[in-house]
Amino acid sequence: MSETQDPDRSTTDKLADAAASAAHAAKDAVAGVAHAAKDAAGGIRIPGAPGSEPPTVAEPTEPREPLPPKPEQQAPAPVSPTGRDTGAPPDARAQDGAYLTTAQGVRLYDTAHSLKAGARGPVLLQDHHLREKIMHFDHERIPERVVHARGTGAHGVFQSYGNAAPVTRAAFLAEGAETRVFVRFSTVQGSRGSADTVRDTRGFAVKFYTEEGNFDLVGNNIPVFFIQDAIKFPDVVHAVKPEPVREIPQAQSAHDTFWDFVSIHTEAQHHTMWLMSGRGIPHTYRTMEGFGVNTFRLVAHDGATTLVKFFWKPRLGTHSLVWEEAQLIAGADPDFHRRDLYDAIEAGALPQWELGIQTFPDTEDQMFHGIDLLDPTKFVPEELAPVQPVGLLTLTGTPTNFFAEVEQVAFHPGHLVPGIDVSNDPLLQGRLFSYLDTQLTRLGGPNFPQIPVNRPHVPVNDMLRDGFHQDAVHVGNASHYKPNSIDGGCPFTIGADGGGYVEVPEPVAASVKERRAPESFDDHFSQARMFWLSMTPLEQEQIVQAYTFELGKCYEQAVKERQLLALANIDPELCRLVAQGLGLPAPEATIPLADDVVVSPSLSMIGKAWPTDGRRIGIVADESSDLDGVRELREAIDAAGMVPLVIAPHGGMLGDATGAPLPVQRTFLTARSVELDAVVLAGAPAPGPDATPAHDAKAGGDPKTPSVDPRVTMLVAEAFRHSKAVGAWGAGSAVLAEVGITGPGVVTGDSPAAVLEGVRELLAAHRVWERFPVRV
Ligand code: HEM
Asked: Is the CB of 376 under 6 A from ligand 1?
């Protein structure tokens, strides 16, 4: 029976079906490629290979064409700077031919020696190849983004469910529309080389290459912002960036200037509260919610308008790291989020989010249930306005070249398509100036829309001419001015009926010019209090710890005391607990506490079950372990869409003697629990020859089990400490018992299959939260 024949099925069911079929379609699009690669690798595909084919030990000397990209790599669409399909293959690359050449295409016979007067020099100025090579290298760097410098990106597809069509005429939201996208995730405060897992807001920017031109949804993973007016953006960014004298700390908010600013500028308190929660340390980009933050306006076919807020809901749920884990990862694998995203795509666990909208009547006061929709420090709880899913985003490909795509992509909240317009939110209005302005410098001139990743997939006839790095060869005598007759009047403007972008004719109230915010922007604490009261006790503990840690890192007593005052105005218990940790008295609130706060349970990240795609399970084994069981477990993990990593005393293979060797991904030296979601012990590995503190300080503890490699017990204990699932069978179960790893979240069983079943159930809840008891 079709959906239309079945009036009883709920909208939610229908949307779930649509999501499932869209997910299927997107997966099919890349599945052929991913499976081919897996077969070629001869067995389970472990992501992370640097190239598309395994290298030989000896340096290759036979000339050949450049190797193809890896199967999961995708490139920007092969369209010209003016949006025309060039017919080039999708994997068209910049480098061609089997031979090394100069930039002018002249073949070279040597690139390792400068041209010299004799073998011992001097070097000759005549050496064009030397000068060209060094000149180009000298200019490889471009300015990093002034904010959001550290990031990663991927290609994907957006499939519309069609249910937003009644409120917007945007073609990419029509029934059945499918649109290519490029997505960039980022941190805000750190430099381009900073660690991924610092406590920070994350960027979530999506470029839709729609049939009506590019639409950018430039959002964050927190639905509210630090400031209400864009004029203060330099202030908040200067406050959080490294302090100017010593240029420290890198990518951290735990320092005086940040807390000095937010404690005086109390409209930042709501955003700061989110930052101190698990939202500030996302587990992965794949498990991160996204928000458009500012209120936008949708325009229907008949011109009717609706105010809207945008959401991205991850299919795998919203999850966080724990703080100690985040700190360890920043050292052990600073590229953790980037690696996770690319590994997941490579392993075929394609990340997915549903685009959701909250809609509000476009009333004159632009308020909803007393919440000012133009105030970006406020959000509307889902309990008041449900989020309606309107389409599915699936990331299907890693970039072909990181610099060309991820570094050069240029997002802008003003890149709008017919059917979507801006509101008067003063933060959004300032953003509309800032992005173009900064990109002019960052990308070296005004022609960055012509960079392949930025090109629209529709005809471009913009009358913009010349400038640095002009890639288009414009034709015609006169078509760069309007009106003209010499060029036949080309190009022509068109109204809304022909797809022209026409701004909503919004009335502007009679007013005076002034530098002032509306009174409704004055409340800085009630929604911070709502967030605090909506958290589970465990999440509240984590927030208390985060404030205590961050303020504990500040030097100035006055800054700490002032922030405690702000906390007192949010919640006295929160203030008391943080003050206790700082060793300071808890001040009294200076304003009446908001006592009519409605809590929003949907803000909590704890208490549900989610799919486990792409989760990493470490299997610890040595030659004495049940290697048949390990083989079986690897296959079962792979079949369940997760990634098995064998961890052994040495690299290479385990089980050579049995004739069915098992590839090893990590050794006791290289493995760290923080890169795993669960650990399973397949035996009781004896101390390896390198298990000495001098060789590996991790081996220097005080093991309760001298017969087991101390790095194994440390690995398991660390995973346990971070509330991760720990499993074992056979001799491994005895090791867990001996080191006291028992209780909730520890799965022992007779067979690997039984252990995996238990571990998977725990992974669905993300962590074994019971292992973090809370104070009462
Ligand atoms: C609702 C609040 C805001 C959100 C959600 C937001 C989001 C983002 C995101 C996701 C990026 C990274 C884009 C990328 O991946 O390339 C970004 C970059 C940037 N943002 Fe914002 N931002 C906000 C407020 C502001 C404000 C108020 C300003 C300035 C007045 C601003 C200026 C910038 C600049 C200059 C960049 C760097 C752009 C580039 O170099 O390409 N942002 N923002």
From this structure: yes
